[in-house]
Every structure is written in structure tokens, then in C-alpha cells.
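HUMAN: You are asked to prepare a plain-text protein record giving the amino acid sequence and the C-alpha cells, both parts labelled.

ASSISTANT:
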Amino acid sequence: AQGRMPLSITADRGGVSLTLPGLSLGSGGLSRSELAHLTRELSIMLGAGQDLDRALRFLIETTKARRPREVLGRVRAHLRDGGPLSGALAREPGSFSRLYVGMVRAGEAGGTLGPTLDRLASVLERERALSASVQSAMIYPTLLIVAAIGSIGLLLTQVLPQFVPLFAESGAELPASTRFVIALGAIVGASWLPALVVAVAAFFAGRALLA
């Protein structure tokens, strides 16, 4: 209500997932972008007076991506066998959540399938926009963190080693903190490439999860 958007951020072994409760998708199905686009197109055609079978056929014929075509083809085949749209969508849990199917079923029962799909499309589009905003907002802090890590790594691997011979020549016993920093610099200098690869992989994995 009042324009608020419920938000769920969950962490798992694969990273972070940003979704609206109940509209999250399973793996192997339509992406958020594909689902939002197809829902919007279907709502427009139903609102223009097209019947459901013709609207689905048009989407199948005009969709270039293979995965959406296959999903829509199975949905249309179930409809042509006499089943309702909600039943056809329920057979594709990787693409259509239970909340999505439930709202479609309610729209069918109330004779408001077109407006229901329009509302679903609006929610999905807002979710996609929110995900894009979060992703954009993360870019600057990520760059700052990378720059800070790079600066520290440069100090440990390039600047600090130049002072090690001076410390050795002085013969003075170094504090524990200084010895720790020198040892850390040696470790970082020996393994900076794997650490860089891991950092880059983590960055792109985070972007993929929020896409």
C-alpha cells in the first residue's frame, strides 16, 4: 500500500538474491526480464481484444530467444488441450511462481485476466528496475574497494620491500606489528595473481546474480 514495495534480500552459497516476495523464479526458466516483457505483451494484446490462443501464437512467432518460445509453446499446447492458463503456467514452476499462477487464476475466475496481467507486468518491471538500481549503486563502492585494495597491495608488495634491507642493516629488533606487515607483504607478493582472479570472479558473479 501507499506505493511501498516489499523487498527480500536473501543470502545463500551462491551469493545474494534480490526479489519481491513470491515472484522469485526457479532455475532454468524465464529470466525476470523475459517474464516481465512477455507478461506486458500478453496483457496488451488481451486488452486489445485478442483471444488468448492468438496472443500466445503471436508471441511465439515474434520471440527470437529459444527459451521463451519453448515455454510459451508448452503453455499454448496445454491451453489447446482444454486447460486453463493458470494450469498451464503451474506446469512451468521454473518460470512462473506460485504467486504469479495464483494471481492469474484469480484473474481468470473474476474475468479480469487482462488487467491482472497488466498489474503483474508493472510489478515485475518495478522489480527489474529496482535490481538495476541496486546494481548501479554498487558500482561506485565496488570501485572504491578495489582501488583501496590495490593501493594496499601496492604498498605491501612494492614499497615495503624496499625498507626491509634497511631494517635488517639496523640490527634493531622490529616490533611484532612491523614483522607481521612484512610477512603479509611477502605472502601477498607471492599470491597476488590468484587473489586478483578471485576478486574479479566475485565481482562478475555478483553482477550476474543481480541482473
DSSP finds eight helices and two strands in the chain. Residues 18 and 130 are 9 Å apart (CA to CA).
